[in-house]
Amino acid sequence: MAAASSARHASLSSPPSSSSSSISQSRATAAAASPRSPSPRSSPRRSGSVLEHTDRAGKVDIGKEIEQQRRQRQDLESKAKSGLVGFDKFVRSNPLTDRFKVLCFHHVELWCGDATNTWRRFSWGLGMPLVAKSDQTTGNHVYCSYALQSEDLVLVFSAPYSDKHRYQPASPPPHPAMTKPAMLDFFDAHGLAVRAVGVRVEDAATAFRTSVEHGAIAVLEPTTMHDVHSGQELVLSEVALYGDVVLRFVSGGFDGPFLPGYERVSPPPFSSSPSGLGVGLCRLDHAVGNVHNLLDAARYVAGFTGFHEFAEFTAEDIGTCESGLNSMVLASNNEMVLLPMNEPVHGTRRKSQIQTYLDHNEGPGLQHLAISCRDIFHTLREMRMRSHIGGFEFMPRPNKKYYKDLPERIGSSLTPEQVEMCEELGILVDKDDQGILLQIFTKPVGDRPTLFLEIIQRVGCMEENVQRGGCGGFGKGNFSALFKSIEDYEKTLER
Ligand SMILES: [Fe+2]
């Protein structure tokens, strides 16, 4: 643990200090803001009172809403004709066009062949204790489901039981649509994959109704779940996101572990404190999907959510790699729910890595989950210690030149000692006009070259002790190094 302790000392999130191994949020912001200020972000993002297009009496301002929808539609339609403009020409603004109030990510659920072994692997690799379960021991004879939690990050792993096992349960399973055929078909097509991106909304019934009215494909009608112990309720509803992945709306006042019907697992098998086995993961930052046609998918998701475009990248932004992709990031009003999507670009020397995903996943699906932490040096030391004993392996480090050139590319945002630690741990660094992004990618987490994880730390962009979403961008400056390493990895699968 000595190594972990020294990493903690050099935390990027430390308060301002004279130590050469620490960096303050304000310093990062100032350093990052210098190349392209003033910020292209529009001011509405800071006027929280207009998040909903309502007047003081709470009535919807129909004229304003229609105008915003028209503008958003026009935007995406003109992109459909002219294509994406790319990172440099894209001007970021936040028109606050959400159709219903979206708060934050709530959880992510993966459907598995064997949930028990999968949750144990993720629990160890990510330092996340089991907090809730629904299985035969709790009266669920249809499927088993296990929820892990580290701060605001909740990952759930579910798999079906045999339906030859007939047992009349005392109560129905928590989720009404999780059946053996649905779960087996999903696993058969995709392997280990994300089924649901859970988002906390103000009202899951309104979110569902509004989404369906605006073109969303309905998957689960609003369903109220009751907690027999506390009497609290939670409402779930689902619409199609892309492929077989659903966007799951969650609302209500339930404060137990995960969802009503799940049994609390207590005490957790290990602590997330620095002295425990937790690695310090905080929350889901963004959830990225791979699709066949980016503009169609973006128009569909933006159409029913009202989400605005936060960033875009084209094959040209990616640089000299052999395979290509286009990417667009959609964001909620508060920019705490970020949904990037990628499409393959064809005609390059190698098959696009997105096409490789689409082939192996048998269609669109969730490509990676970006998980944020407060001290990436500590998190990476802990995760790397577990890499070869059941944890997650990482993509190969960039070459020495990447780290030699880093100070020139990011200025004085990191101390020489921190750059050295980035090199030792294989962490990539980038910045945008707002802040700094430190990131690293795992190898695919399952059998197929599909789903992987990204571990990130964002530095800067603090507003009243809250960090703005997407601070530091998505690693555009690392695309070349990153995609080269993905291509090299894919070559190892072609023997
Ligand atoms: Fe990412």
Describe what this molecule looks like in 3D.
- A hairpin with a 3-residue loop joins strand 15 (428-431) and strand 16.
- The chain has 495 residues and is of the alpha+beta class.
- It is built from 13 helices and 19 strands.
- Helix 1 packs antiparallel against helix 10 (376-386).
- It has helices spanning 2-9, 25-33, 62-82, 115-126, 180-190, 204-213, 294-305, 315-318, 353-360, 376-386, 400-410, 416-425, 479-491; strands at 102-111, 130-134, 143-150, 153-160, 193-201, 218-226, 233-242, 245-252, 263-264, 281-290, 308-313, 324-331, 338-345, 365-373, 428-431, 435-441, 452-460, 462-463, 466-467.
- Residues 1-11 and 13-60 have low confidence and may be disordered.
- It is globular.
- The strands form 3 sheets. A 9-stranded mixed beta sheet has the order 6-7-8-5-1-4-3-2-9. Strands 11-12-13-10-14-17-16-15 form an 8-stranded mixed beta sheet.
- The chain has 2 domains: 102-264, Roll (2,3-Dihydroxybiphenyl 1,2-Dioxygenase, domain 1), CATH 3.10.180.10; 279-494, 2,3-Dihydroxybiphenyl 1,2-Dioxygenase, domain 1.
- Fe (ii) ion (FE2) binds next to strand 10 and strand 14.
